[in-house]
Amino acid sequence: MSSTTFNMVSLIRKKRDQQELTTEEIQYIINGYTRDEIPDYQVSALLMAIFLNGLTDRESADLTSAMLHSGIVVDLSKVPGIKVDKHSTGGVGDKLSLILAPIVAACGVPVPMISGRGLGHSGGTLDKLESITGFNVNLDLKQYAEVLEKHNMVLIGQTEDIAPADKRMYALRDVTSTVECIPLIAGSIMSKKLAEGIDALVLDVKCGSGAFMKTEENALELAQKLVSIGESFGKQTIGYVTNMDQPLGLTVGNWLEVRESAEALQGKGPADVMEVTLMLSGTMIYLGGKANSVEEGIEMSKKSIADGSAFQKFIDIVDEQGGNSDFLRNTDTYPKSDHILKVEALQSGFVSSMDSYEIGMTAVELGAGRIRKEDTIDPTAGIEFTCKVGDRVEKGETIARIHTNKKEIIDSSVKRLQAAITFSETKPEIAPMITHRVDRSGVARL
């Protein structure tokens, strides 16, 4: 940690004028801001300069390191095995963590998972977990290590001790319009992930209307930056760019997605969900040293579903963290929304697009998400779909069902959902779910 003092105005000017900040300068900024020695307005100016001019790979790694070491870096060396986590950049209907963590743990690879909450159109793993009655995501770091060692997996939220600089920086980025900056996104993600105590990392970088990265170019740039940072810390890191032009699976909303996850772990998951899940879980098992290739890891993943060990692992972790696993065994017994209504197709034809962003925001409107951090989530709210892009439907046919306890927004939500789903006379070309793999050797189109 640097004790050298710098002139913050000079550092802002330096980055404004497209010059590189040194390792010591970056440490000074992060340490000073964390200790309240540098005010918000100066860090805001620096964030905008970074937003406009970017960071080199070395600067990005230094920023990640400074944020990482602003708090506790968990030591999981006493937990046997190669610890592997997965991070998704967020999407609509993205319940993959709930499915792949039990699969990978059942195959003998420890999965230490510290997840986030949803904000805006993108759902959060913690909110999904908390829809399981009693599930406790607020374990301390001692309990976190103990549960991981006992079950090969643990699912918690970010503690105050993990990368506190990132928490402060993110809040500032949120109100200074500097969220969509690839070096800052990468530093934020990797500082938290590296603090978990992982040995390797698999990344799911979403691309499309429901993702933060709307274009393939931006998604690839972020994936490469994340992999570069992970590798610079000695953590083998593999990333995939995946499609988020339509929601993943057939459900959006917290309990609905948990229910779909439980079904997926019992061999009844939608094809798109399982394709991406198996690629990610297979890669995690490979990085965890339990398979000689990703393909072998995928086969092991399928076997853990077929023999019931993956679903049992999910039951075990829910029981361990205080949740009511009876709801996973008998999903129909879970409380239901007061209003469950059909959404009908306004015309006949092939489903040509499903606007993930609009669908995500409709789910938020129904009560499944939050616009402000203090908003309360309704775990029963959400949307079930009966169609995907490429399916043929007839006018008046049910294409979705909405679940909500907010009677007053039903009509507007139905109209918004109908507007988000478009039709064509000819069957559209179906985009691949996984487009690229990014690792230390470069980018490969799949």
Description of the molecule:
It is globular and about 70 Å long. Strands 1-4-5-13-14 form a 5-stranded mixed beta sheet, sandwiched between helices. Helix 4 (57-68) packs across helix 9 (182-195), helix 4 (57-68) crosses helix 10 (216-232) and helix 12 crosses helix 13 (294-306). Helices cover 45% and strands 16% of the residues. The chain folds into 2 domains: 84-159 and 185-329 and 434-445, Pyrimidine Nucleoside Phosphorylase, Chain A, domain 2, CATH 3.40.1030; 335-424, Aldehyde Oxidoreductase, domain 3 (Alpha-Beta Complex). The chain has 17 helices and 14 strands.
List the main descriptive attributes of the protein structure presented here:
17 helices, 45% helix, Pyrimidine Nucleoside Phosphorylase, Chain A, domain 2, 446 residues, Aldehyde Oxidoreductase, domain 3, five-stranded mixed sheet, four-stranded antiparallel sheet, 2 domains, globular, alpha+beta
